[in-house]
UniProtKB/TrEMBL annotation:
This is Glycerophosphoryl diester phosphodiesterase. SUPFAM superfamilies: PLC-like phosphodiesterases. It comes from Dioszegia hungarica. GO terms for molecular function: phosphoric diester hydrolase activity. Residues 1-18 form the signal peptide. CDD domains: GDPD_SpGDE_like (cd08567). Keywords: Signal. The keyword Signal applies. Pfam families: GDPD (PF03009). GO terms for biological process: lipid metabolic process. Residues 31-354 form the GP-PDE domain.
Length: 390
């Protein structure tokens, strides 16, 4: 098991090394266009090819998720389980492995060696029919992702890295302490020039509290939506803005959202995020889960992000970067509110919209260099077709 507290020397190294570099300021001058899971509408999600496409789109920030394997390795992957619509088994990691097949198993119950047998690049999921697939592509560790980006570009792109933890169903993932220790070890190992460009985000605010306590210079982003603000009204019902329980939410590190100052939910959400020292408020930007329609132009649309939320967050010194926004009408609505960034599955398309709105954007990476590094560093199964998307 991982130690839950990093050594005092390592903590001091992170604090001291991060402060003087300030690499992130070179990219924070740009509007924060983030490629969600690299850009899952454009290439198979959470893989090196997806991050390559994000760099070619000229994102400010590569957004990604991290799971923690049974043997404590941070792996770049969104889901708590190995999803059969995204990955295929190729072979067991060793003879007579009783865990095989691995598809359908929880990441927390699989070792890195077992996960490295999976083909997570062949399947184009239904919701993203235009995404490039890269057959045979294996999932990458957090360290391997950093190696690829370091090879692919000299620009100080930013990283928004989510710890995937479920505080409602605590046996589905490793603990917040395990995540913070494992991720912190990788961050420290990458050096100050990378550390200063990282944001740790999570829906489970317990992890963010631990991050700030152990690594005060590391930025944090408080993810939220209307299903995480409140207690579920029953064991089987997810709360939202219109139907929810009362009292502290498991997702908000025990904060009772209704106990905070503010005439609107938006104000209280911002104050809640500030109370855990978050640097960024990252709310759902498409629509509230209470909304029966998804586009701001349609009757009955209920937004989660509103002017009071953005204004309150800004007054408290936080940025607002909504996720995951793919509809142009909704993006324009959010830009009018004054948000500081957009997380999208389609960073190339969103970039065009932002250019038309006069936003100052990061440069696109060099295609020859990016694809050369992808060919060099991507790992594939025996049946794989390295770096050939279609």
């Amino acid at each position: 098991m991982l130690t839950t507290v990093f050594s005092a020397a390592a903590i001091l190294a992170l604090q001291a090394s991060a402060s003087p570099i300030k690499q992130r300021w070179a990219y924070e001058k740009y509007f924060d266009l983030q490629g969600h899971r690299g850009g899952r509408g454009e290439a198979v999600e959470s893989t090196l090819p997806a991050f390559a496409w994000g760099l070619l789109a000229g994102v400010t920030t590569l957004e990604m998720d991290v799971g923690l394997t049974k043997d404590g390795v941070p792996i770049v992957w969104h889901d708590e389980v190995i999803d059969k619509t995204k990955c295929k088994d190729s072979a067991p990691a060793f003879a007579n492995d009783t865990m095989y097949p691995y598809v359908g198993k929880n990441v927390a119950n699989l070792t890195l060696a077992q996960i490295k047998t999976l083909d997570c690049g062949s399947l184009r999921i239904d919701g993203f029919p235009r995404a490039e697939v890269y057959p045979g592509t294996k999932l990458s560790t957090l360290d391997e992702m950093f190696d690829f980006v370091q090879c692919a570009t000299s620009d100080p792109v930013l990283f928004n890295i989510e710890s995937k933890i479920n505080p409602d169903v605590t046996n589905q993932t490793r603990s917040p302490a395990d995540f913070v220790a494992a991720m912190g070890k990788v961050f420290v190992g990458r050096g100050a020039d990378v550390v200063d460009r990282i944001t740790h985000q999570s829906f489970d605010w317990r992890a963010l509290v631990l991050s700030k306590a152990q690594y005060p210079t590391l930025r944090t982003a408080a993810l939220c939506d209307d299903t995480t603000l409140y207690r579920n009204p029953t064991a089987t019902t997810t709360g939202n803005l219109t139907v929810h329980g009362t009292g502290p939410s498991n997702w908000l590190a025990g904060i009772d959202i209704d106990s905070l100052q503010g005439a609107t939910v938006g104000e209280r959400v911002a104050r809640a995020a500030k109370s855990i020292k978050a640097d960024i408020l990252s709310p759902v930007g498409s629509a509230a889960y209470a909304s029966v329609v998804q586009d701001v132009s349609l009757p009955g649309y209920i937004p989660f992000v509103n002017q009071s939320m953005v204004d309150t967050a800004h007054s408290l010194g936080m940025e607002v970067v909504p996720w995951t926004v793919d509809r142009k009408n909704n993006i324009e609505y959010l830009l009018a509110l004054g948000v500081d960034g957009i997380i999208s599955d389609y960073p190339s398309d969103v970039r065009i919209l932002l250019e038309r709105r006069g936003k100052y954007l990061a440069p696109k990476a060099n295609e020859e260099r990016v694809m050369g590094c992808l060919k060099k560093l991507v790992q594939v199964t025996k049946e794989g077709l390295p770096t050939r998307g279609y």
